[in-house]
Amino acid sequence: MKTTHTFCLCCLLLMVTATSLFAQKNPQRGYIVMKGDTIAGTIDFLSRKKCAETCLFLKDGETEYRAYSPKDISAYSLLDNTVCFESKTYTIDGEAQILFAECLLKGCVSVFRYEESSSDVMFFLEDGNGKVAVVKEIDYLDQMTPEDANVKKHQVLDPALEMLSESQQTMNRLWNAQLTASNIVAIVRDYNKQYCEGYKESIVFEYKAKNSSSSKLHFTMEAGLFNTSYDLTSDLQPKTKALKFGVGAEWFFPRVDNRLSLQVMASYYKSSTTVTYIYEESDVTVTKELEDQTVTVLCGVNYTFWPKERITPIVSGGITLPFGLSDLGSPDAFDNDKAKDTSVKLLPINLCLYIGGGIDFKILNHHLRAIARYELPIRKGYSDTIKPSTFVGVSVVI
User: Fold this and answer.
1) CA distances (Å), origin 179, targets 108, 121, 159
2) What is the three-class DSSP state of 191?
3) Which residues pair with residue 41 across a beta bridge?
4) Minimal CA–CA distance to 107: which of 51, 69, 159, 163?
5) Which of 149, 266, 288, 344 is least surrounded, with the fewest CB atoms within 10 Å of its CB?
6) Please, are residues 354 and 375 in contact by the beta-carbon 8 Å criterion?
7) Cα radius of gyration rounded to whole Å, the chain
8) Residues 349-391: pLDDT tens digits?
C-alpha cells in the first residue's frame, strides 16, 4: 500500500513539475513599429497596466522575447486590432512623461487611454495637429454644490470641448455623459464622421481583457460510470456501480502555462446493492438492500499536452474528499438497530488520491473530453473498508 501511495504522489509531483518546466508566455500575433519600419512577430499579451509599461516582443525567426520601452519603439499592436499602444509624451500632474498610451480610436481626432492605477484612468483626445486635451472622471462631483460642480467640470472638460467646438451637439453630449471609454469613443467617433474633412472610417480598437488575464474561469460538467467495492468481511465484499454526475469550475492559466488548468468539482452518486450475510453464531442468513449515497469534492490539476491542437491527450491528478451520506461500507451496515435509522446524515470524510487521463476534443472555445480516473483511499473516514474506485465518463468545459 505504501508503494502505491508513493507512486501516486510521484505522478502528481511530476505533472506539477512539468508545468513549470514548460512555462511560457501568452503569445499573440502582432507587430512593432521601430524607426518607421513595421516588424512582424509575436507579442506577449500582458495585462492592461503592464502593456502601458513594456512591450515583450518575439521577432519572427528569433527564439527569445525582448522587452521594449516607449523610448525604443513608436507603437505596437495585435493583428486583430484588439490592442494598439503608441509611444506618447503626455503631461501628467505637471510632468512630461514618455509612456505607451492605449489607442481606443484612430481618426482625425483620436482617443488614447492611460491607466496610472485602477482608480486613476485618463483619456487623451489628440487632433491631427498634435493638440492634446485630457479628460478624466471627476471624483465626488455629486457631493459638490451645483456651482462648484460646474466650475470643476469646466476645468476638466474645457480643452476637450474646444477641440470639438464645431459641433454644439457633441459638446453637449460630452458635458452630460459619464466619462467612460465607450462613451468617449462613441462621441468622438460620431464627431469625426460628421465634421472631419476627407473623413475615413475611424479605427476602433476593442480591448479584450479576457485575452490578457492571468486566469480564465470555465464551467464544467461531467457524467459517467463509477465503480467501487467494500471489504466488510472475507465473505462479504459488496460492489457499487452507479451513474455519477458532477458540476464545477476549471481555471486556465495562460500567463503561466496554457497547458495547465485547476479543477474543482462536486459530484454525487446513489446506488443500492443487495447482499446476503450469514451469522455464524446462529446460522441465520440475512439479506439486505444497502444504499450507497456519496457526495465527492474533487480538487486537482489537468495537464493538456498540445493545447493548440483540436485533439490532444490530457492527464490529471489531485485529491478527492468523499462525504458519505449512507452507511454502506461502515461497521453499522449490518447492525439491525442502527440500520433502522434511514435518515440521511453526513459521515466522517475519506481522503483519496486520484490520477487520470483521457482525450480532449476542442470545439470552438469549448472542450469535450473522454476521461478515466483511478482513486486510491489514503485516509479512512466513514469507512475502514472502502477499496480503490474507478470512474469512466465524459466531461464538457464551456
Assistant:
1) 20, 10, 15
2) helix
3) 30, 59
4) 163
5) 344
6) yes
7) 31
8) 678 899 999 999 988 878 999 999 999 888 665 455 667 899 9
Query: Is residue 58 classed as helix, strand or coil in its secondary structure?
Result: strand
Q: How far apart are CA 151 and CA 153, in angstroms?
A: 6
pTM of the predicted model, to two decimals? 0.54
Please give the Cα distance from 316 to 299 (Å, whole number): 10
Cell numbers linked to 146? 451645483
The rounded distance, in Å, linking the Cα atoms of 189 and 175 is 16
Q: Are 290 and 273 in contact (CB under 8 A)?
A: yes
The three-state secondary structure class of 119 is coil
Rounded to whole angstroms, how far apart are CA atoms 266 and 298? 6
Contact (CB, 8 A) for 46 and 212? yes
Is residue 266 within 8 A of residue 246, CB to CB? The reply is yes
Residue 93 to residue 115: CA distance in whole angstroms: 13
| Whole-angstrom distance, CA of residue 279 vs CA of residue 262 | 48
Tell me how far apart the alpha carbons of residues 9 and 353 are, in angstroms, rounded to a whole number: 8
Tally of helices (H runs) and strands (E runs) in the chain? 7, 19
Terminal-to-terminal C-alpha distance of the chain: 38
- Alpha-carbon distance 398 to 387, whole Å? 33
Spatial distance between the Cα atoms of 85 and 46, rounded to a whole number of angstroms = 12
Quote the CA–CA distance of 198 and 187 in Å, as a whole number: 19
Half-sphere exposure for 200 (CA within 13 Å, toward CB): 5
Element (H, E) at 245: strand 239-253
pLDDT in tens, 74-117: 999 988 777 899 999 998 878 888 889 999 998 889 999 988 76
Using an 8 Å Cβ cutoff, are 357 and 374 in contact?
no
3-state helix, strand, coil in the chain (%, to 5): 20, 50, 30
d(CA 103, CA 338): 71
